[in-house]
Specification:
Helix 2 (about 70-90) packs across helix 5. This protein folds into 2 domains: about 5-240, Peroxisomal Thiolase, Chain A, domain 1 (3-Layer(aba) Sandwich); about 255-400, 3-Layer(aba) Sandwich (Peroxisomal Thiolase, Chain A, domain 1). Strands 1, 2, 5, 6, 7, 8, 9, 10, 11, 14 and 15 form an 11-stranded mixed β-sheet that branches. The relative contact order is 0.19. It contains 11 helices and 15 strands. Strand 10, helix 10 (about 305-315) and strand 11 form a beta-alpha-beta unit. It is globular and about 60 Å long. The two termini are about 25 Å apart. With about 400 residues, it is α/β, with parallel strands linked by helices. InterPro entries: Beta-ketoacyl_synthase (IPR000794), Ketoacyl_synth_C (IPR014031), Ketoacyl_synth_N (IPR014030), PKS_Beta-ketoAc_synthase_dom (IPR020841), Thiolase-like (IPR016039). Pfam families: ketoacyl-synt, Ketoacyl-synt_C. Keywords: Acyltransferase, Transferase.
Length: about 400
């Protein structure tokens, strides 16, 4: 269960870009993908702003045969997985028959597909409901479709843990590579921009009701008024690293450490579970707090949850002890895809020696936080920490580090 695991491919589909370098360029420029929801009329609801992948023409990315049987979420996932495989520059057919697998995370499943079929059931009758409804809504469908598309017959799995699930999926893939699997595709995908999903999200009373995109999602700010949901997919290719017989020549960096905790008190903002996850991830990476050069924070933009995250960071790293960034302010909280996107951005930050900014936000008067705001910050970066929390008490933390000495 030991041995290094590295990331050799990145695939990103987000509200501010398609493809890794497009997303990275947009992120460094602070280009926001937040706007009023376009896919349906949100005016009858109290929340209007979201991060939507636009424009996105699925027929340009997947076969016409797949479109009738997939939810928008799965189309994003398949596209991101394709990007990641191409980025890794690997021929999957050259791997052993059971030598490659896939693990994905999803928070909600295929809501949009499900809503459409329910509408057909109510308005036309059961004979008009698509047979694909039997699986298109399911949390595990992205794993299955990616596996079929790429002929992946090795280990497979799915994680449901809201935002934290994205990192947990990467951690599960890491374990499989350590056990001897030659390659794993792992990541998260979610899309919840339809009325049925929108109402379900509103029920948590944590969504921002702001009507201006640049004021809607401002974590750690005195104006914080809730999070903005977004859609997207982020997939990584994981392979054995140094010391293995099949270790790749080029990689973005190493998945050095991970830990997950659960604490039901998280909803009150009084959870110690997040700090514990951070501490355990550092132990798993054999690093100390002083070794971490940047933290990609969860950034809920809910006061009690922001306060608890600031406390956890300060308890581990000291007050203003480490630069912190929340680039998801440009795209919204992408649920299971969100922390995987952060992980990809962290690896790109290590590669280029630059911390992407948090936009539209500034540390509140009661937050002693070295938040990177407005513009990217050049820095010598060797290791980064990514934090993710899921609704109800899930916590996950992951450390990535550069391969350069």
């Amino acid at each position: 269960m030991n041995g290094s695991v590295v990331v050799t491919g990145l695939g990103l589909v987000t509200p501010n870009g398609l493809g890794t370098e497009d997303v990275w360029s947009a992120t460094l420029r602070g280009r926001s993908g937040l706007a009023m929801v376009d896919r349906f009329d949100p005016s009858q609801y109290p929340a209007w702003i979201a991060g939507e992948v636009f424009p996105f023409a699925p027929e340009q990315h997947i076969s016409s045969r797949l479109i009738p049987q997939t939810d928008h979420m799965t189309r994003l996932a398949l596209t991101a997985a394709d990007y990641a495989v191409r980025d890794a520059k690997i021929d999957l057919t050259e791997l052993p028959e059971f030598g490659a697998g896939v693990v994905t995370a999803a928070t909600t499943g295929g809501f949009e597909f499900g809503q459409r079929e329910l509408e057909r059931l109510w308005s036309k009758g059961p004979q008009h409901v698509s047979a694909y409804q039997s699986f298109a809504w399911f949390y595990a469908v992205n794993t299955g479709q990616i596996s079929i598309r790429h002929g992946l017959r090795g280990p497979a799995g799915v994680v449901v843990g809201d935002q934290a699930g994205g990192l947990d999926a990467i951690a599960q893939a890491r374990r499989q590579v350590r056990k001897g699997t030659s390659l794993m595709i792992a990541g998260g995908a979610d899309s919840t921009l339809c009325p049925w999903a929108w109402v379900a999200q509103l029920a948590n009373n944590l969504m921002s009701r702001a009507t201006e995109p640049d004021q809607a999602y401002v974590p750690f700010d005195d104006r914080a008024c809730g999070y903005v949901p977004g859609e997207g997919a982020a997939m990584l290719v994981l392979q054995p690293g140094a010391g293995s017989d099949v270790g790749p020549v080029a990689a973005y960096g190493e998945i050095a450490g991970h830990a997950a905790t659960f604490d039901r008190r998280a909803a009150t903002g009084m959870s110690a579970g997040l700090r514990k996850a951070i501490e355990l991830a550092l132990i798993d990476a054999s690093l100390t707090p002083s070794d971490i050069d940047v933290v990609f924070a969860d950034g809920y933009a809910v006061k009690r949850l922001d306060d608890s995250e600031v406390t956890a960071i300060a308890d581990v790293f000291g007050v203003r002890g480490v630069p912190v960034t929340v680039p998801k302010t440009m795209v919204g909280r992408l649920y299971s895809a969100g922390p995987v996107l952060d992980l990809a951005l962290a690896l790109l930050a290590l590669r280029d020696g630059v911390i992407p900014p948090t936009i539209n936000s500034a540390p509140g008067s009661h937050h002693a936080l070295d938040l990177v705001v407005g513009q990217p910050r050049t820095a010598a970066l060797n290791a980064a920490l990514v934090i993710a929390r899921g609704y109800g008490g899930f916590n996950s933390a992951m450390v990535v580090k550069s391969l350069e000495e």
